[in-house]
Amino acid sequence: MAFLIPVAAGVALSMAASKIYAYLKTPPPSPPPPPSPEMTQKLMIRNAQEKLGMDIENHYNLAVCGNSGTGKSTFINCIRGVIDVEYSDAFVYTDSGPAPSGINETTMMPTHYCWPNNELPYLSIWDMPGGGTQKHPGETYFDDKTLYAFDCLLLLKSGRFTQLDTDIYRKAVEYKIPIAIVLTKADNDIKSRVKIKTTELRRKLTKSEYNALIEETIRQLKNNVKSELMTAGFPEPNLNAVFVVAAQSYRDEKLGFIDDIDCPPLETEKLFLACCHITVYRRSHA
């Protein structure tokens, strides 16, 4: 079984959010553990620096990875409370600014972002290029992108598992890298089901009916992940490491755009806290 975030063991959220954030405002006590006996910590540090320019000694690092079109850049903006911008020739990168998004793949190389206003000064979140392409082949994606050097991987998906998803997950299992499966665009699934249900009932849903529909949608999406992973030959996964998110709703709440929210954030905050928790835990026990 994959070395998943501690929520799989039932203790992920035992540490208060304020305490987790406090850890991320100071440098990590040690580098992350190496992924295998064949790779020393020193070599891992050097690979991360040479391939990505990533400082794993003095920063915690999360990687947002997966296929093109799963909303990686938008997710990174939302989790930091940053407004999206569409990529153009005039775009200027800053590490605290937005990750550009667009109809086509806009992330050509691993790019790191930090939290605005130095909110979490020792935490970086990385926008990884979509894999499974000629430039970024899926078979070597994990090692090419040095994913083994990250504290936690967030594998974003918005449909069925692809070969790239399976390759990333398999490598994370092999190297015991914490990985969360993040189901994006769940708000679209919920809106679709609400429309079907209201048409069927010929009236608006009550609050309890709406909440029950959300819970059922989350349960169904997670069970789909379990079925797909088991079909791919993996042991039955712990669904506590699968998160159904509505990241744009999370950002809207964070920025105070309450009137514009037509779907709750779902498990977005739970995901972020769980990933930060395992990040802090691993560094403290490396």
How do the helices and strands line up, and which of them pair or pack?
Elements: H1 17-23, H2 41-52, E1 60-66, H3 72-79, E2 111-113, E3 123-127, H4 138-144, E4 152-157, H5 163-175, E5 179-183, H6 186-201, H7 207-231, E6 242-244, H8 247-254, H9 268-284
Parallel strand pairs: 1-3, 1-4, 4-5, 5-6
Antiparallel strand pairs: 2-3
Helix pairs in contact: 1-9, 3-8, 4-5, 6-7
Polypeptide structure, described:
This protein has one domain: 3-Layer(aba) Sandwich (Rossmann fold). About 3% of the residues have low confidence. Strands 2-3-1-4-5-6 form a 6-stranded mixed β-sheet, with helices on both faces. By secondary structure, the chain is an alpha/beta fold. It is 40% helix and 10% strand. It contains 9 helices and 6 strands.
Compact description:
By secondary structure, this protein is of the alpha/beta class. It is built from 9 helices and 6 strands, in the order H-H-E-H-E-E-H-E-H-E-H-H-E-H-H.
Helix content, binned percent:
25-40%
- Sheet with the most strands, sense and barrel status: 6 strands, mixed
- CATH architecture designation: 3-Layer(aba) Sandwich
Segments where pLDDT lies below 50 for 5+ residues?
Answer: 6-14
Number of helices: 9
- Counted up, domains total 1
The CATH topology turns out to be: Rossmann fold
Please state the average pLDDT score: 88
Q: Structural class of the helices, strands and pairings?
A: alpha/beta
**Through-space gap between termini:** 20 Å
Secondary-structure element order, as H and E? HHEHEEHEHEHHEHH
Cα gyration radius (Å): 19 Å
CATH class category label: Alpha Beta
Tell me, briefly, the overall form.
Answer: globular
Question: What share of residues are in beta strands?
Answer: 5-15%
Oligomeric form of this entry? Answer: single chain
How many strands in all? 6
How are the strands ordered across the major sheet? 2-3-1-4-5-6
